[in-house]
Amino acid sequence: MPRRYPPLTPEEVIAILLARGFFLDRTTGSHAQYGGTIREQFCRATVDLHYRDLDEWMIKRLILQAGLTREEFYGSVRESARKIGLRADEYPVPLQ
Is the whole model's pTM more than 0.70, yes or no? Predict the structure, then answer.
């Protein structure tokens, strides 16, 4: 059984955000802020770049900041979807 919130690298999180239409807004030190519109609402997600893997707490915060569900977040790219055992016909998984 896959973990509910498997760890992701900052590069994987950035790929997820870019797949959802986010853009790099600014970088300050080791924090990159990405902005994007989800469900007609502007969202800003901050990715901490100096960690090797982001733990469950950070992943939950990023999902909340991005305005996505767990399945929409991990289902944005095929590699992260496999980590939670999600199979879809197309990636990114459509928003609900």
Answer: yes
Q: Report yes or no on 2 lying in a domain.
A: no
Evaluate whether residue 59 is within a structural domain.
yes
Q: Is 86 exposed, middle or buried (0-12, 13-18, 19+ CB in 10 A)?
A: middle
Query: What's the CATH number where 68 sits?
Result: 3.30.920.30
- Joined together, the tokens standing for residue 50 give 């100096």
Q: Per-residue pLDDT averaged across 20-45, rounded?
A: 96
Spatial separation of the C-alpha atoms in residues 25 and 33, rounded to whole Å: 6
The answer to whether 73 and 62 have CB atoms below 8 angstroms apart is yes
- Characterize the bridge pairing of strands 41-48 and 23-28: unpaired
